[in-house]
Amino acid sequence: MTDATRETPPASGGKLAEAVRESAMAALLAFVLTSLMLGVRTVDAPGGLGLQYRWHLVIGAMAVVFVGRLLLKLFWWKEDGGAPAAVGAASGRFAALTEPLRKFAAPALVVFAFVLPFLPIADRQIIDIGILVLTYVLLGWGLNVVVGLAGLLDLGYVAFYAVGAYSYALLATHFGLSFWTVLPLAGILAAMWGMILGFPVLRLRGDYLAIVTLAFGEIIRVVLLNWVEVTKGPDGISGIPRPTFFGLEFKRFGENTFHSFFGIEYSSMHRIIFLYYIILVLAMITNYVTMRLRRLPVGRAWEAMREDEIACRALGINTTNTKLTAFAIGAFFGGLGGSFFATRQGFISPESFTFIESAIILAIVVLGGMGSQFGVAVAAIAMIGGFELLRNMDWVKGFVESTFGIENFDPNEYRMLIFGLLMVVIMVWKPRGFVGTRMPTIFLGRERKAISGDLVKEGEG
Amino acid sequence: MEYFLQQLINGLTLGSIYGLIAIGYTMVYGIIGMINFAHGDIFMIGAFISLIAFLILMSLGLTFIPLALLIVLIVAMVVTSAYGWTVERLAYRPLRESFRLAPLITAIGMSIFLQNYVQIAQGARVKPLQPVITGGYTIMEKNGFTVQISNIQILIMVLTVALMAVFSWIIAKTPLGRAQRACEQDRVMASLLGVNVDRTISLTFVIGAALAAVAGLMFLLYYGVIDFYIGFIAGIKAFTAAVLGGIGSLPGAMLGGLIIGLIETFWSAYFTIEYKDVAAFSMLAIVLIFLPSGLLGKPEVEKV
Predict the structure, then answer these.
(1) What is the pLDDT of residue A431?
(2) ipTM score over 0.85, yes or no
(3) How far is A339 from chain B (nearest CA, A)?
(4) What sign has the CA pseudo-torsion B83, B89, B90, B95?
């Protein structure tokens, strides 16, 4: 169909006719794809399923594909480079222009994160979104160690998040241990699980490893769901204690409360802001540790392994140990994130630890450029924070509902759709990420040769 | 014994469905060496297209079931193939020369996209369908326990065997099959000898998707209920089947599918039904660790 036509010489009738013909083919394909799936909706009806026809969606999809393909054909895919070259040059100029600013971007972001609760815009909603975003930043950085630095695709990262969450929930509700005692413990437990799960599978090749980690993630979830005596199964664990500030609780009444100790008025915001700072500090620790690790021999071994595993082995690096440390450290951060999640929510159930969660974290790492700390942070802010903000804007909802005729529009329903699509687009268009680029931490000599990335095609990467 | 026999029949039916999906994994892996993570969702799309097509035919007043099912089968195969082709064209072909994890990541992206696309287009609720093919035969009756094989089980097994025969013939005898095997061995050399590699790979995806569509229709008829999430679990199990049978091997995929189907059914029958997915997933890990080249596969040689 349309794929062959790009190579064939244009038929008589010139370029435009050719483009139109091709676009028509694409629209026809769009019709085949969408006619039954989008055009007909199965709805619950008495005595089985009823059908609801929505031809306007099919026509809309065909129109979008036709016009999109036509525009791409006429302006984008050209033999002389065309628009991509122009855009590439423009973005290159833009990058050069912003080069001096770039080294301030990350510190500015950190400073902003620290002062956010005291800014006038910070209401409860903003802080809540901030906590959520920072949780994903932490998880993204944790997974970044495994995927971005060591180049091991881990699709079951949520398992470690779950281990951390359940460790805290169980230890706190059964033994009354405090958040601060359990936090490192949860990390260590998650890291141990990382090693236990990692050990047998690390000899596997990249794509097999990915699918086995996925299976492990699912196994842990199924166990949590069915081991009712310990985890209370689908009911989950509730009444998980909140963290304390050096023993001071965030309660309105009672002894040793935060507000009475400092002699200030009680406000429920204190607890929220406290949680915000906990996760911010945890994320910062993750970042700092990762940055330092990258300069240690093990970090360099990770990056080397990502670029070429066989060469790594030839140079005498023990790849099993190197992989195992990456797995364990990534899992450790996942465990920290998990116990924070448990203490923040006060309630956990296996529902929170599905594959979708792993996929979201992976999407953040991929969009952030797989290896770039800054990129991961920006991707988390954009993807998590952006959608939360979008959900809270009523005019967006009204606009979409009136324009597209969709009832009860909720941007979060479309979040995973867009995540999935972006993962594809990023990989096809800019495989090294949108925001950051992954460059090895050290270089031989002064000049920064681009050994990473484009030159490495057949690596295990 | 009767119970065992009954479970054997159920397991073989389930295994046939897994086998049909596993063929898609194994063919794609054989030819371009990647796990088509979205294949499970292609199967799910096949099931949905079947359901929708069937309901449309019913609403148009076609009550002759065999004809309706034949039309549904053809429509589902065509439309699902279009999905398979499009996924390959958009998400995998541009990355054929990229680093190894790149197509895997796009495959995961595609899988997420397809799941959510169906969820949004069709709703998250499960879709029930009242039994279309009813009836069956009693094989034996002893001690008050009857061993039955239903018509739908017979249909599934017969169709699977027939499709296996047809596709084995295609791979072994036709020019397309020859081109596929050539691409499998050496893509560059095949293209130098005049094999249209892009076309061959596209057709591989089309065939895989068409078989997944058949599996989807069978799943719909057998279980009578589908949702947008069925592709995920079934996909992993079918992948396990493909690996178990030896990835790249067509009879291996079928054999692996049957084994996985049997393991799952017997596990549910004799142990706990809650942990049946754990059984299948553990099987995957065990096979990959101890038997990475599978039952009928060739050991992989690592090239530098």
Answers:
(1) 67
(2) no
(3) 25
(4) positive
